[in-house]
Amino acid sequence: MANLEAPPPTRRGPVLRLRKIWYQSRTWAANPTVALGVILSVLAVYLILAPVLLMLWDAITVDFADQARTGKSIGELTFYYLDRALLSPISKHIFWKPLVNTALVSVSVIITTLLLGGTLGWLVSRTNLLFRNWFSTALIVPYMVPSWTFALAWMVIFKNRKIGGPSGWLESLGITPPDWLAYGFVPITVILAFHYVPFVILLVGNALKQFDSQLEESARTLGASPLLVARKIIFPLLRPSIISASTLVFAKCLGDVGVTYIIGAPVKLDLLATSLLRTISTGQAGMSAVLAGAIVVLGATSVLIDMKLLKAAQRFVTIGSKGSLHRTTELGKWQVPAFGFAATFFAVSAIVPLGALFLTTIMHMPGVFTWDNFTLDYWIGQDLVTTAMPQGLLLTNEFWIAAWNTIWMVGTASIGAGLLGLIVGYIVACSPFRLMGAFLKQVTFLPYLVPGVAFAAAYLSMFAVPRGPLPSLYGTGYILVIALLASQMPFASRAGIAAMMQMGKDPEEAAQIAGAGWWKRATAIVLPIHRGALVSGILLPFISGIKGLSLVILLAVPGTDLLTTYAVRLVDFGYTQAANAVAIMLCLIAFVGTWLGQKVGKSNLGSGIGG
Amino acid sequence: MTSISIRDVNKTYTRGNTRAVADLNLEIPASEFLCLLGPSGCGKSTTLRMIAGLENLTSGQISIGDKIVDANAEGIFVPPEKRHLGMVFQNYALWPHMTIEENIEFGLRIKKTPAHERKTIIDTVLKKLGIEKYRKRYPSEVSGGQQQRVALARMIAVSPEVILLDEPLSNLDAKLRLDMRTELKRIHAELGSTFVFVTHDQWEAMTLATKIAVMNEGRLQQIGTPEDIYDRPANRFVAEFVGTLPINIIEMNSLDNTTFRSWLDAGIEMLCLGDQQVHSLGIRPETIDILPGTAGADNGNALCSAQIIDLVPTGGNWIVELDIAGARLFALKAQVRDLKPDQLVQLSVSKQDLHAFDAAGDRLVPTPSK
Ligand SMILES: Nc1ncnc2c1ncn2[C@@H]1O[C@H](COP(=O)(O)OP(=O)(O)OP(=O)(O)O)[C@@H](O)[C@H]1O
Ligand SMILES: [Mg+2]
Asked: Cα separation of A125 and A190, whole Å?
């Protein structure tokens, strides 16, 4: 090791120093990471850090509307909102009850997903389950279907007389489902759990795949019972992936508004996110900042705990070594029950909801299975009696506008996010300034902790008023595109960082030696090499952006409706069938988009899903 | 042809405040095959990367040919892509998304070589390195040894005047290494370019280089021909680093074995070191002569009685473990037919095979006779 003391810098006059500075800048100019890093850091501050900080700032400064109530003038520091949200008589309804509900829902969702996903993950990765390969793809489908479509489907089946609109299937069969089954805590838990089981299947399944079966076998030869092996060997080694999956699911539960909005409202069940949505939509900037802050703090805490636990667990991470064996377990007489279990899960989490939704769109009266009850009116009908929708969905102009908006806005945002993510990865892996890389890595991860609604609120604070040279963006498509882009940076930059770290700097340096300037290196070497990462960096944001509701629900106006917000508007009007038809079309776009992306990019998403 | 000159170069990595290269001065004449030799972490790669421009200097100056390409105090920096060098990376750094042919073609395209010439050049280098068969394959579809040939082919296709190689043979098996060594020698003879070859394998350095520069902890220890380095190591570090079997080092200050001592003193006497204090003495195992029997003279060299303790075969050569009144010494012999354990023998070493070092570890040379 050449660990000698660095020589004291020699200073001989200002000319020499100037030349050395000139030398430094010449070497930096030869290295594009420096300039790119500066540009990207500015962008990250402007598009992510500033909006979030600005929104949180609202929590402790007086809002225009509250000048009289607080007795202070606009912009002054105040504890009014904190006090109101946490201590006042209404705090119970605005904050504490939603907090408890959120905690209950998240904990039950996490437990359910771990049990279901853990079992399914083990079945598809370590056993000789029938149609194992098929299942390993099919079981991911629920993740591609927007979570709120499950809620719509649930309503189709379980809705009772409590609220208006077409009645549910059970109701029309003469069975009135009780409120607890139709709305609120139980359905929310079930729906969120089904939606996030794929995470656990992927994370735990991947961990199990790497797992050396010699470890369990050696324990078995020592006489340990299978149960003891599971408890003492398998579980501890799976802990990191279980923790990651739990954190991921927790963050998602914190931010989800769609499901609760649709299925919690009839029984007035609020989670923090829906409470936040309410304060935002009634224009209470201060209160929403407090609630958003609370969600950010909860999310950040869970990630910190995750990192701490992972650090502790990393010490015994087993890396698949040369002699590792990946033997599958013979299911034997359990083959049929196991297959039944996996098939049931697939049916309940994908076929039934999508099927139910689809059926509602081709039936006049829900749940009445007679020939003359079937119709295509909701798709292609004309001169219908419904006031606001005289034509079927496919003939309605708004639908096509919303569909086009979805495709171009989410598409642009995803491509932008994918490219920027790759650049972030490039800077993290190759920049001579470590701090810049670390800063970018952290800031691009920040939107992950800020639930969609809160992020949207932040964007409203930042871009709904003219700032500097920029006019107010509210009501335009641009605010949606940049909000989508910024909110998808966590996936994109993680994909980029992983890819760049793995490849390292050598291929680019080799091109540089061969005489290629930076543009040539970027287009002929770096981008093509990382095509796979770029594809997942674009596709993952695309899927998650296309089905996401919480971010766009605040930012879209009727002119800039996306399919998601359009569907919610239809729900609000009571046009359930049309809303369901929109949901079906949305799933179709997500599937086709994913399929096309994988074909064009010649890469597979399976292992990359993470949000 | 192109020479390289490195003057007073220092490199300190800000990260970890590591001084990777210290006060380095190297003049590499045109068409030299210079090996940078040294243990891991001694700054070989850093030196190479500074020549290539992939790493900037903390101070100092580098010229390639008569052009200054890097001078901290002058504010001169020529980026790597304008230095027109060839380089082979330790892990080859082939572009995984291009076929082997495209890998080779890339540099030619950048040089704006016309298409028909490109084709001829590619055909020639592919043939020269025996990889024509694989031209349409991707790097991941050929073996490590073939990848390495591709890396070489990619580099020589643009016939650079300066060629930098960072441990290009380290990932190959023994047989392939031998082949590639011959290959490299041939390429050097054909192109006549200036080679800088980084290795920590002294055998590689000995067999390839026209000059070897030995480095340790960021500092140049010695530069010279392979014979210089082997026969006249400039200091203890070089003596100990170079040699198939570790050199025997005897600390003279703490030696109280009279038999051994008087023999060594007789040897030191012949070195004509005047009144310079010998701190330690090095004797390469392969330079020790073993004479069976207990008496006799060996053309003027002093003799020393010893007993054979053990004979260890190493595949072709034998390590002979010797005991001199309690002290251990190792010798290396090609054949040991007339030797056996416990046998009493006489040892003899010529004076040019005795390496005397002072307290600082530097080589002691004869004082000019007065
Ligand atoms: N990018 C870097 N940042 C900080 N320190 C570095 C960096 N690169 C190298 N070093 C340090 O500089 C010293 C010299 O490194 P260098 O890579 O030149 O060694 P080397 O002689 O090529 O070794 P090896 O034979 O292992 O390749 C080492 O101590 C190393 O840890
Ligand atoms: Mg090296």
From this structure: 24
What percentage of chain B carries pLDDT values higher than 70?
Answer: 97
Global ipTM = 0.83
**Nearest by CB: A515 against B10, B89, B110:** B110
Higher per-residue confidence, B78 vs A215: B78
> Ligand 2 centroid to B20 CA: how many Å?
11
Single-letter code of the amino acid located at A288: S
Determine the pLDDT at residue B48.
95
Question: Which residues fall within 8 angstroms of residue A553, CB to CB, at 6 or more apart?
Answer: A257, A258, A277, A452, A453, A456, A564, A565, A568
What is the distance in A from the centroid of ligand 1 to the CA of A2? 8
**Which residue type does A490 have?**
P
As a whole number of angstroms, the distance between CA A217 and CA A211 comes to: 12
B4-241 maps to which CATH number?
3.40.50.300
Region for residue A609 given its phi and psi (left: phi exceeds 0; alpha: psi -120 to 50; beta: otherwise): beta
Segments of A278-422 assigned E as strands: none
Interstrand relation of B289-292 and B344-348 (parallel, antiparallel or unpaired): antiparallel
Q: Give the CA count within 13 Å in the CB-facing half-sphere of B310.
A: 8
- Mean per-residue pLDDT for A320-329? 51
Task: Decide if A30 and B77 are in contact by the 8 Å CB cutoff.
Answer: yes
Chain A's closest residue to B215, CA to CA, is: A2
pLDDT digits (tens, 9 = 90+) for A191-226: 999 999 988 888 787 777 766 666 667 777 777 777
**Cβ-defined contacts of A524-527 (< 8 Å, 24+):** A524/B106, A525/B95, A526/A426, A527/A422
Domain boundaries, chain B: 4-241, 248-357
Tokens read off for B318: 């034998």
* CB distance B33 to B16 below 8 Å: no
CATH among 2.40.50.100, 3.40.50.12780, 2.40.110.10, 3.30.1330.50 for B248-357: 2.40.50.100
Q: How many CB atoms lie within 10 A of CB A249?
A: 26
CB contact under 8 A, B75 and A19: yes
Nearest Cα of chain A lies from the Cα of B278 at a distance, in angstroms, of 28
Q: Does B8 touch chain A (CB under 8 A)?
A: no
The domain spans of chain A are: 98-321+334-366
Residue in A26, A515, A517 nearest the CB of B75: A26
Say how far apart CA A157 and CA A360 lie, in whole Å.
10
CA B102 to chain centre: 33
Instruction: Determine whether the shortest distance from the Cβ of B254 to ligand 1 is under 6 A.
Output: no
Q: Which residue is it, tokens 């499950």?
A: A150
Of B251, B224, B225, give the one whose Cα is nearest residue B236: B251
- Judged by CB atoms closer than 8 Å, whether chains meet at B73 and A19 is answered as yes
Alpha-carbon distance of A475 to A558, in angstroms, equals: 9
Residues 17-46 of B with CB under 8 A from A: 17-22, 41-43
For residue range A99-144, list pLDDT tens digits in order. 999 999 999 999 999 999 989 988 888 888 888 888 887 888 888 7
Measured in Å, residue B199 CA sits from the centre of ligand 1 at: 13
10 Å Cβ neighbour count for B258? 9
- Between A and B, how many residue pairs show a Cβ–Cβ distance under 8 A? 114
- Per DSSP, the residues of B260-287 read HHHHHHHHHHHTT-TTPPP-EEEE-GGG
* CA pair distance B44, B29, nearest whole angstrom: 19
Let me know the angle formed at the C-alpha of A606 by A601 and A611, rounded to the nearest 5 degrees: 100
Interface test with A, best of B17, B56, B217 (most A CBs within 10 A): B56
Does the predicted TM-score (pTM) go above 0.80?
no
Q: What CATH number has the domain spanning A98-321+334-366? A: 1.10.3720.10
